[in-house]
Amino acid sequence: MIQEFQYKGETFRVNAHGVAGHEEVFIIHLVDDEEMGEISIDRMTEENDTSAPIEAICVMLCDKLIIEQEIECADPDAGFAWVEGNRIRKVLPSNTGAAAH
Fold first, then answer.
1. Kind and range of the H or E run holding 66
2. Angle 69-52-33 (CA atoms, 0-180°, nearest 5)?
3. pTM of the predicted model as reported, rounded to 2 decimal places
4. What are the strands of the beta sheet with 2-7, ordered from one edge?
5. First to last CA, the chain
6. SS3 6
7. pLDDT, tens digit, 9 for 90 and up, residues 46-84
C-alpha cells in the first residue's frame, strides 16, 4: 500500500508491504509534493507491537521523524487522517484470480 495521510497538519506518505503486523513500513514527509525526510521500520525484525494497526505505526514513526528532523508542524494538535482519494497503489493478493488490466 502506498497512501498519503495528514498528521499534525503535515502531509506524509506511507509505503507499507508485507503481512499485517509484519510489514516493512516507510514514512516520507512531503512538503509542496517534495520528499523532505524519511523513516522506516521492519516490523518482522524490529521491536514493535505487531498487533497495532498500520495507523498506529504511522503515528509512532511520524513522531520520531518530527523530533529527528525538527519539523515545525502546522497544527501540532491535529490527529491522523488518511487523505481520501490519494491512495497511489493498493496491491491485491496474487491468489485473487483477477486478470491484470
1. helix 54-69
2. 35
3. 0.82
4. 34-42, 24-31, 10-17, 2-7, 81-89
5. 19
6. strand
7. 999 999 999 999 999 999 999 999 999 999 999 999 998
